């Protein structure tokens, strides 16, 4: 039995998956990057200065290292693993498919959480529309990473 893990470490962007230790090809990197930039362009209200993300091989290496462990848990040490960034965000997704539509995956799993984000309160909301007391990562934390 084999499985693929998609582990996103997002600041400038790194998304990586492991199938027996393999990383992403150039076409997959481009698809992931294009999908992220597409969904970032759909924020509401429209951003006045939304920066385009760029692929970062150092972040991709960290993501691949963590994904290769095949442990579905947060990397609590991610802020000390990079000297280039003060903070490295992280989002997870998993699939058992050998073919992955990254645009669809990012949209369905991460961007779809937009419905729980309130821009004016700068907060995540629960199912009842109330502000989450713990910051709301469970309801829209991956959306805010995108």
Automatic annotation (TrEMBL):
The SCP domain, residue ranges: 27-145
Task: Give start-end ranges for the coiled-coil region(s).
Answer: none
One of the Pfam families matching this protein, by short name: CAP
The region annotated as signal peptide is 1-21
Signal: present as a keyword of the record?
yes
Q: Per its UniProt record, what SUPFAM superfamilies does this chain match?
A: PR-1-like (SSF55797)
Q: Write out the entry's keywords from A to Z.
A: Signal
- Report the InterPro entries cross-referenced here: CAP_dom, CAP_sf, CRISP-related
What is the name attached to this protein's record? Peptidase inhibitor 16
């Amino acid at each position: 039995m084999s499985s693929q893990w998609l582990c996103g470490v997002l600041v400038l962007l790194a998304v990586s998956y492991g199938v027996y230790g393999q990383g992403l090809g150039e076409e997959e990197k481009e698809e992931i990057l294009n999908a992220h930039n597409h969904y970032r362009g759909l924020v509401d209200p429209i951003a006045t200065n939304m920066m385009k993300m760029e692929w970062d091989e150092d972040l991709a290496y960290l993501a691949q290292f963590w994904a290769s462990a095949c442990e579905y848990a947060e990397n609590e040490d991610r802020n000390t693993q990079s000297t280039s960034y003060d903070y490295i965000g992280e989002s997870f997704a998993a699939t058992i498919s050998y073919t992955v539509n990254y645009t669809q995956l990012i949209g369905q799993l991460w961007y779809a959480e937009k419905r729980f984000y309130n821009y004016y309160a700068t907060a995540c909301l629960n199912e009842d529309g109330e502000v989450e007391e713990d910051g709301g990562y469970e309801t829209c934390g991956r959306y805010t990473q995108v």
